[in-house]
Amino acid sequence: MATKVNATCPYPLLPKSQYPERGGDTNARFCVDIPALQIPDCCLPCPKQNFFYRDEFTTMIHATTYVNLVGIACCCFMLLSFAVLPVEATRRHYLSVCLAFAVLLMQMSFVIPLGNPENQCYDAVTPHDMYSSLNCALSGAFLLGGGWCVVMWVFLRTLSLHLQICWQVVPGRKFFLGSQALGWSIPVIFLAIALSMTGVSFRFGESCHINSKNGVKTFWGPMLAMAAASIVTQSITFGYVMQVYIRSLFEDKPSGSHHTGTSGQFPSNSNSVRTVTATRALRRIKRVIELQWRGIFIVIIILADVIYFSTVFLQFDGTTQKTDANVQKGIEWLFCVLNHQGDKNKCLDIAAKLVVNEATAFSVLFLLSFNGIWALLLLGRFSIYPAWGKLIKDLFTRKKAADEFVSYNARRISDNPASASYEMLESKRDASKTHSTATDMSIMKPEPTLTPAPRDLSSLREYNPQTFTAQLRGRADEHAGYVSPYRDLETGHARTMSPPIMGPLYPYGSGQEEYIGQSLAPSPAYQRSFSPYQDSPRGSPVDGRPQYPKEVRIGVAK
């Protein structure tokens, strides 16, 4: 702002003749000619927004830049999570990834001036445009291109949801390729058209925006048309959901009046097929909404921001048009400033008629800055934070080798081969202990399972005579002599073979004698074998109890 009175123009105006049109956005100059006061063409100093808003408004606009930094950090964190973490933790989808990247592009436009704080003005009365300032070109390109990308991917996401719910079509590879082609090519095309035919310049805030000349035809009109298509598609989808829900509630149900008179028959209902169809459709819709409710909310929020942003800036363009009403308001404000010796604070109520309301302008920039945070809250999941903790822990923690049964001798070469045995790696014995015995060593056994665990054949197990199993085997060999606690029948002869199957007392007649034993020849002692089962005379009752001689002792244990 100028600090002294100019020789030809009253304070705070500056003469236009001293600043020829050499660069910058000369169409954005705020110049006025008042022949009645014999004042030549005088222009308002750049940036002109400082004269229409309070001094605190500039600080508020600058604060939104740091909100954009937080939004950029959220988008970068989410994209990095999509790239590094497993899909089970992020549930990533190309529609979510591309939408998050589009939001990041739009957020970048508001932080570029923060990295390179360049003056917004080409000279004292002319603001920079994309040809005179690299900051302006980059911030404007990111804003227009990022806004177009956001609108396109919002539309593609809305279309995908519409196909799944209304048409029961799951988008596949063709939809993926088509969305990638349209989602990035259309923003590039319209960005080139907007920059070449309209251009960007410093008009409001710390970033460059599209100029008012042909801005509706090249940028605002097509983008609002695409946003309207998204709103219509989303509205049709919600309308279909409500129709299915209401139909499932109010459709005719089977009633007892439809009985045919036979008590054993089921009631008939002509609308049963339609009822089942509506119920199944409602269940399918619920599943889709449960999976994509986050995407639905982010679509609604971004569409609301885009429409609000477009409406406010179109209103701002309307205030900058050179119309009779705007000229009359400008002259009224100029006389107010001149009468108060350039004190803008005395004329803020009149200035509010020339520009967008201060609260409205700040809310637009703040909502645009908050889109990155919304993207993290709605597109990201809480499971990504434990997944990051696990990933960082695995990076700084050495992985332990898997527990296996391996040969103890294969892992440790001992000087004393007698002390070698195979054990689990977890149970290492103290070197001071002596060889294991049956009383001081316990065998480690796995817990019983329904299916036996597969045996690991990769490690060799060698036989060692000093192991516990070998000692048990040796002790068993020493006590191999086994004495039965039962005595044989006291017949006075050694029992060497089984008695013959056939004999003189065989009840089924005579036949060839067969023996069960090692020898086919009967022993002399058993030529006359005794059978405890004696035949009774014909016609007498049969006693089934066996009959033995009195001197025989049977099965007497020690």
Descriptive overview:
This is Similar to Frizzled and smoothened-like protein O acc. no. Q1ZXI9. One of its GO terms (molecular function) is G protein-coupled receptor activity. It is a multi-pass membrane protein. This protein has 14 helices and five strands. The chain is mainly alpha-helical and 558 residues long. Among the domains are: 48-253 and 272-396, Up-down Bundle (Rhopdopsin 7-helix transmembrane proteins); 404-427 and 457-470, no CATH class. Helix 4 runs antiparallel to helix 7 (272-320).
Q: Strand pairing plus helix content: what structural class?
A: mainly alpha
Total helices: the number is 14
CATH class of the domain at 48-253 and 272-396: Mainly Alpha
Span between termini: 126 Å
Helix-strand pattern: EEEHHHHHEEHHHHHHHHH
Q: Describe the main β-sheet briefly.
A: 3 strands, antiparallel
If you compute it from the alpha carbons, what radius of gyration comes out, rounded to the nearest whole angstrom?
A: 49 Å
Q: How confident is the prediction overall: mean pLDDT? A: 76
CATH homologous superfamily heading of the domain at 48-253 and 272-396: Rhodopsin 7-helix transmembrane proteins
Shape verdict: elongated
- The total of beta strands comes to 5
User: In the CATH classification, which architecture of the domain at 48-253 and 272-396 applies?
Assistant: Up-down Bundle
Question: Do you know the CATH topology of the domain at 48-253 and 272-396?
Answer: Rhopdopsin 7-helix transmembrane proteins
Poorly predicted runs are 1-6, 255-275, 404-415, 417-451, 456-463, 503-528
Task: Report strand order across the widest sheet.
Answer: 1-3-2
Q: Report helical residue fraction.
A: 40-55%
- Relative strand content: under 5%
